[in-house]
Amino acid sequence: MEYVTKLPVKMLKPAKQQGKVELMWYFSSTYEGDASRRLHKKAYVYLPYGYDEKKQYNVLYLLHGGFRVEDYWFFEFPETVNILDNMIEKGLCEPFIVVTPTYYHGRSDMNSANESRTINFRHELRNDLIPAVGRKYSTYLGRDLSVENMQKTRDHRAIAGLSLGSMTTYRSGLYSNFDIFSWYGPYSGCTGPFGKRDEEVTKICETLEKGLKEGYRLDYMFCCNGDKDIAFTEHNEIMSKVTARCDILKKGVNYDFFVIPGGKHDMDAWQLDLYLSGQIFFRK
User: Fold this and answer.
1) How far apart are CA 70 and CA 43, in angstroms?
2) Does residue 1 lie within any of the structural domains?
3) What DSSP state is assigned to residue 244?
4) How far apart (Å, rounded) are the C-alpha atoms in residues 239 and 218?
5) Which of 93, 214, 226, 271 is the most buried (most CB within 10 A)?
6) CA–CA dist 126, 152 (Å, integer)
7) CA dist., res. 113 & res. 203, Å (int)
8) Rounded to the nearest 10 degrees, what angle do helices 197-213 and 232-245 cross at?
9) When comparing pLDDT for 108 and 201, which is higher?
10) Total domain count for the chain?
11) Which pLDDT does position 154 carry in this prediction?
12) 80 found inside a domain
């Protein structure tokens, strides 16, 4: 595939073959690891055109940024659905399901500046959200919602996110759940302005090295940032140090850090990230 630095305009127009977005409610009984607390939460689910319960689908869990919730990708920016429709219709990727949850406790919590949300979401992601998706939709879990089957089918599961969602991709997707995800798309940032960069480098390297020893291979990590993005410097520095230290990441094989010339911390860049990573994820 050839990387482009600007999303083709035709991808934003409605496709002939249109998928649909529907609301999914689920219970989060394990949020922040406290099984005694229970939340009724929602996520939006994109189902590709021709969705068929008799087929099995790969799933991308796609995260929003700070001070937003689960409706960000599909409703604040509805052309995101057109992008997915067009990619599938034009054969740029196989049909896949996209789930947009929130790592906040709900809309009333979305103004929280507490970054622990990005870490604690790991419990809900593993114990509540993925099983809820597997229970309702036709995924490679095949209704077997056990941890063992999530591990077995990890190459059919991806996680990506923008800004604070990019940080959540590392903190909840990579560090804690590498055994159930093998595709990653951190769009704009790793540690944020308050984190310790060298500690993140160590966490990434140790996660990949430990995972490999345990038989969990990284299929692909597609990092992306615009060079005018406020998160570019820290993200680029961290991943440059990771690649220098850890030989597991191989450019063009299972890893890339794509820089968008003039790209900023905005949806123009993030939709391009989705367009590019959508052509990488789930391909062997």
Assistant:
1) 6
2) no
3) H
4) 15
5) 226
6) 14
7) 23
8) 40
9) 201
10) 1
11) 98
12) yes
